[in-house]
User: Fold these one by one.
Assistant:
Number 1:
Amino acid sequence: MNQAAQIEQTAYHSLIQTDKDDVHSLNFLVKGVHCALCIQKIESALQEHKNVSYVRLNFSTGCLSVKWTGDAAEADDFAGEVARLGYQVFPYNPEIEKSTEEQEGRFLLLCLGVAGFAMGNLMLLSVGLWATDEVTMGMNTRLLMHWISGLIAIPVVVFSGRPFFKSAWAALKNRHTNMDVPISLALILATGMSIFETLDHGTHVYFDSAVMLMFFLLIGRYLDFRARRQAKGAAHDLLQTLAGFATVVEGANTRKILIRDLKPDMIVQVALGERIPVDGVALSGDTTVDTALVTGETMPRDVHVDDELYSGMVNLSAPLRLRVAKAAEDSLLADIVRLLEKAEQANAAYVRLADRAARLYTPFVHSLALLAFILWWAVLGALWQDALLIAVTVLIITCPCALGLAVPVVQVLATGQLMKRNILVKSGDALERLAKIDIAVFDKTGTLTIGKPALQMDGFAPKSLQIAASLAAQSAHPLSKALSVAYTGDLLSVDQVKEYAGKGLEATIAGDQIKLGSLKWCGQDVPSESVYPQICLMINGQVAQIFTFKDQIKADAADAIAALKALGIKPILLSGDRSAVVTHVAADVGIDTFYAEQTPVDKTALIHELKDAGHNVLMVGDGLNDAPVLASAGISMAPGSAVDITQNAADIIFMGEHMQPVIDAYKHACFTQKLVKQNFGLAIAYNCIAVPFAFMGYVTPMIAAICMSASSLLVIINSYRLKLLS
Amino acid sequence: MSILIYLIPIALILGLVGLFAFVWSLKSGQYDDLDGAAQRILLDDDEEKPHH
């Protein structure tokens, strides 16, 4: 409970906002919330405080809002309590989280709701209008209903059409077209025509067609938004971690301040198990740090006075003081954030299949509508209103619904299917990008291997293992944990345990003097090129046993690599680890191309090189150091054991200690793309049938809107074939 | 047809009531955490409440 105690002393009370009624409010960022029970545990724990008036945990963002009266300092208790339940707590930085994403979602929903309201009412009027003629209804009644339709539809088209108008305008300004251009044009023309017809006391108005079209397209737009919203914000999450607290030493006192307020030359204290908040220089030695997050190495590193330390490392064996070398915004973590943001922006430039299709499709549709107008007006001598009506019908009937609705539906369905196989797809177009890969790059530790050292179980006496495991149970060092895992029998009672940071353990067992630690500390020769970590057990000064540890390769890694090769995808191994280890692992899983001792910058550079050479690259990795690499690859996957930030940077996350999900996801992606292409095919076939009729003037805009919806239903039903796959 | 003078406004007003209820629920943040709402349905919170 060391960490919980640590958090209780933090300075959350300095971040509180208090309103005029003396109600304090504060937002925490809580990590590790996975299910309904987590929500309940956290909320009910805080509700037990009598003075707490409001507790709400937002499951999507992890933001926990608390309002209470009375003592402001209770904020720290709340944080401590949540931490004791086993969740990570950070101060919530509203400036970062106030994302445009959230606002975009609300905006789309609002447009959808307004369009839905208008569609319902317009249909009510339309049923009457389309079912009878002017003789039954009377001229004036019909005119009244046209006016009411117009009064509902015009403001609604202006209001709810904005997502399309904005996007179309932005595309036109940059001299592009996208699929919103024909949509906007159809909306504007259908509404404009109807206004004219109403003023002119005409027979038919088509406000209902315009609004119906808009409503269905907005549904597609919102689904698409939901599918892609989680993809972003990895960098934001990392920044939230930077918003934590650090303990600053000032003379004899210590004080907690926000990490982003740290200045160079301040002295920072890092307790056991705490993450080093900034880059700095060690003032005290004799500890070890876990550098896995920063370099991807499995083994902890020893720290001596004047060693350089980087933010993101975890202090393992003794309290540590360091002098801040750089302000938090210049630290290594901040560098990673910047790399990440850059990569995310670059990926945003990816043009999706639907948009590429739209670029071909829209000029075609526009010319067709224009052609219809010219043909009827100039050549066949129709009234310009009638000619325009036919042109609008052509626009509506060719409306790119397969692009606007069917693609998101296939994606949402495929995502659900993969979810059942414990594969989480986070970005909407991930499957599209995955289907195109020709190179798969793997990180080593935690991706191809399990990521924890395991004892090599051959050729040693059971007694020495029992002694070693009994001693190891006293320590939290990764190698000690591996020893404990490997031994299942009874433990001996251990007296006078002493732990020497970075060296080993010393104790007495049944009167014998036992030492367990590094070869060097036990006075043994260290092999110059040691591939795997080793420790030595000494009993009364005599070497009893040397234990070797190896990071185990995942059981099906070799099979998965072979399957990838069979599918024509080239595997590459990319690791920050030493060359000797990497060579071994590559040979074991059957990867021919590998690179060792790579920094995050090297890795990113290599990915860019591959991309520039025209390859579509999949990156699979799990460490924090992999986060920018994942973000810069064309498509990325991370195992569920990866750190939060890396999970957020990845497009796809898979659970369990297997590699098979990589293959599953790839196969699913290929099938999904096949369905999408079929849907396009269906849409084109439908257009080939419907457009000639519209062109000849046999179709009213109302029928066109119904046809368009029916064709959308058809592609949606086709998409459901995905359910038959498994 | 004069019945329309009542029916159309009634239909519109009912629709508007629905629309305002939707806008209110949207503004008060009820759609901000749809995943959370999906999870919360599993909670038996009425058993937790103390009896008054």
Number 2:
Amino acid sequence: MASDPIHQFNISKLVPIEIGGLDFSFTNSSAFMVATVVAAGAFLFVSTASRGLVPSRMQSIAEMTYEFVANMLRDAAGSQGMKFFPFVFSLFVFVLVANLLGMFPYFFTITSHIIVTFALAILVIGTVIVYGFWKHGLGFLNLFVPSGVPGVLLPLVIAIEIISFLSRPISLSVRLFANMLAGHITLKVFAGFVTSLSAFGVVGIGGAILPLGMTVALTGLEFLVAFLQAYVFAVLTCMYLNDAIHPGH
Amino acid sequence: MAREDDLDRRRRELEAALSARRPETADEGKSAKSGGLVGAGNALKLSSEFIAGIVVGAGVGWMIDRLAGTSPFGLVIFLLLGFCAGVLNALRATGQIAEFGSRSSGKDGDGDDRN
């Protein structure tokens, strides 16, 4: 198990539940999703409980997170986009806390499963499509009609634009999932080198210093990636929401 | 009401004063960032954009084939369209082509409304 870099992504059922032939089991993935929500919620509740005019350190972190997401959304989608603030903030904090929780040894990284990230991406694109049609009716379809295209090419261009639009949830989810998966596998492989090299006596232990240093460096890199991917996910969500709010602006 | 306007004005002035001081530090951060890490992130981003276009094109073509019984043609045509969409996605991600649905300006924005 120690040298198997894939083992960390195994799903195990904690509480088997089956309803009507469908598997609704409470798995380790579900447990960590609950842990993510509880950790994020508890942190925000506790840190904002005192509501000091001069914020404490904890409150300051919560306020900085709020302003960070608010500025991101306002820059990308304008002040009209602020009605989506709870949505974007929840997504950002969920992905960020899930990524960071995954950095603990022996913890499960829920964002390293494509079905989780894909569900999040479908939620985003579903919101964009539903809000776009509800707000603009068929005018939302103007999104797929670029300006200044000759009439002959229009069907071709529209088909390409529609495929490009449909590919967004896939690239959104694949990016987050691939980053987390690849990072955790790399980390595990280099850490595995340390144990297998140090089995070769003194020379091996001397050689194991190199992968150990690499593991330390990669851990730092993974923390950066955890934050960066949550940020990228939120920024792209804001950009897609902007399309729903102002199609063909 | 007047108090709020006053507050707004003072906040704007503060913002302007702050942003006058900010550029030096912001530039330093940008130049320090341009290492190999950002390059790798970009590579992953662009490849995911490109592959997503192809996957969706193939998927749409395959679905059309299944529903309409036009096997290989739907897949062939939509796979090619998917390649186009992938290239379009990648170019958009690098900012070489205008963003989704944006009109370049008002004067040539009327060309498509007639169709």
